[in-house]
Amino acid sequence: xxxxxxxxxxxxxxxxxxxxxxxxxxxxxxxxxxxxxxxxxxxxxxxxxxxxxxxxxxxxxxxxxxxxxxxxxxxxxxxxxxxxxxxxxxxxxxxxxxxxxxxxxxxxxxxxxxxxxxxxxxxxxxxxxxxxxxxxxxxxxxxxxxxxxxxxxxxxxxxxxxxxxxxxxxxxxxxxxxxxxxxxxxxxxxxxxxxxxxxxxxxxxxxxxxxxxxxxxxxxxxxxxxxxxxxxxxxxxxxxxxxxxxxxxxxxxxxxxxxxxxxxxxxxxxxxxxxxxxxxxxxxxxxxxx
Length: 290
Fold this sequence. Notes:
By secondary structure, the chain is α+β, with helices and mostly antiparallel strands. The chain has three domains: 46 residues; 114 residues, Uridine Diphospho-n-acetylenolpyruvylglucosamine Reductase, domain 3, CATH 3.30.465.10; 109 residues, Enolase-like, domain 1 (2-Layer Sandwich). Helices cover 32% and strands 26% of the residues. The chain is built from eleven helices and 14 strands. Strands 4-5-10-6-7 form a five-stranded antiparallel sheet. Strands 11-12-13-14 form a four-stranded antiparallel sheet. Strand 2, helix 2 and strand 3 form a beta-alpha-beta unit.
């Protein structure tokens, strides 16, 4: 591992200012689970790392808004999310997702902001948070901004963050009565990188003849180079009865519209078939969940 300089600013804004440089080998580090691995492999050779561990503690906290929405500090660890009573009560799909996200050693160190900003398409939380309608708050020396989380990822390991910008907070709307589920298919252990991840959030109208879908949000990861909403599959569900026929048609629509990519976890054909099957399963899981 090549030598590097380590700086520990006391505020997130100070950290952002240190990153606002034309030097390409300056990187932020929070939990370091991805950065350190990339450095060991020689993929990343930074000359300077900006540590975020000493910035304001409020960026490590989880709070609930007056309207029931969530505000998650970017430096909160994944284990903190997993154990949070607020998360479990307001958005239990996040709690369920974290139980098979990597392993407990990683979750104890990895942060929410790093998980999102690393932009690896195999990450589990981005599809879930996007399906819930989450936004990210960003700080920079030039002023902060808030954007939908689905606009954060630009490509494989690429984001739309500008030089000197850091994710400060994740804002998740109140889930309310919506039903949500996340399913992933792994080719090895349950906590391995997925070949496909599917997040579904449903707004339902309960009637005597069964549930009708008022609105649906479907987001996939791992099978595409960024998390992707499946608009055509959502359209199949919108206004329809949530029965086996509808679920099958949604699966076909999703498999047809997604720009699936192959990798070590599965070929394009394999992942497309997974999507066709798992989309219906994820919808069914959402119908049965909170």
